[in-house]
Each structure stands twice: as C-alpha cells, then as structure tokens.
Amino acid sequence: IPMVFMTYANVVYSYGTERFAKVAAEIGMDGLILPDVPFEEKEEFAIPFKEHGLDFISLIATTSHERIAMIAKEAEGLGISEPKQAEKMAAQSDGVIVGSAIVKLCEKYGADCVPHISTFVKEMKDAIR
C-alpha cells in the first residue's frame, strides 16, 4: 500500500524541499500531496521529489472543469480502488482517497459512467461502514 505525506507547501518549503524529499524517501514514503500548490506551480516541488523516486500527487477541485484533462494527463498513481482495500484502510485511518478509481471509470465508460460510479461509491461506502 503506497504511503504519502499530505501537508502544505510552507511546511515543505521551510524544512527545505530537497531535504524533505530526501528524508521522505529514506523513511519509505512513496509520494506527496500538497493541496495548496496549484498544478501550474507544482514543478518547484515535483522535480526534487521525482529525483528521489517520489510521486507528486495533484488534486483536482470540482470547480476545475477546464483544467481536469490537463491535470489528469500528468497524474501519477495512488489510491484505493477496491472495497476490500477501503475496508482495510478505513480501519486504520480517518479517510480513504478513491479519486483515481473514479477517474478510471470515467475514462472507461465515458458519458455512460454515472451508474458505474454510483455503484462503485455505494460499494466503497458499504465496505467502510
């Protein structure tokens, strides 16, 4: 199961981006989520993390309609994609990210994806209850 840090850019920046990336890789992290870094400004963090074998994971806001394709095109892998995984992780955490799995359903079914996503979300919710 991939492990990622989710924090804010100022934490990484004040610690030292290169130093943060090095230490994160040394302790076994797989990536980083910085929700306050706009996609267009991610390179300052993404490049040092990539040099240490870590993924920089961009989040997509629901209001980012025209930017979704651009962001998804450069997305790196992460996330929970099956109810069994969600059940296991929910027992150990406060949340489960399933966005990548939903994006894959959109890609697979296109305009007909809504019922598939609905079923998927219900299965995931049932698994973590």
Description:
It contains seven helices and three strands. The chain has 129 residues and is mainly α. A three-stranded parallel sheet has the order 1-2-3. Helix 2 runs parallel beside helix 3 (43-51) and helix 5 (83-90) runs parallel beside helix 7. The longest helix is centred in the C-terminal third of the chain and has 15 residues, at 114-128. The two termini are 21 Å apart.
Write the layout of secondary structure elements.
Elements: E1 4-6, H1 9-15, H2 17-26, E2 31-33, H3 43-51, E3 55-57, H4 68-73, H5 83-90, H6 99-109, H7 114-128
Parallel strand pairs: 1-2, 2-3
Helix pairs in contact: 2-3, 5-7, 6-7
Number of continuous helical runs: 7
Distance between the termini: 21 Å
Q: Could you tell me the number of beta strands? A: 3
Main beta-sheet strand count, sense and barrel state? 3 strands, parallel
- The shape is globular
Topology order in helix (H) and strand (E) letters? EHHEHEHHHH
Uncertain segments are none
Report the helical percentage: 40-55%
The whole-angstrom Rg is 16 Å
Task: Please provide a brief summary of the model.
This protein has 129 residues and is mostly helical. Helix content is 51%, strand content 7%. A three-stranded parallel sheet has the order 1-2-3.
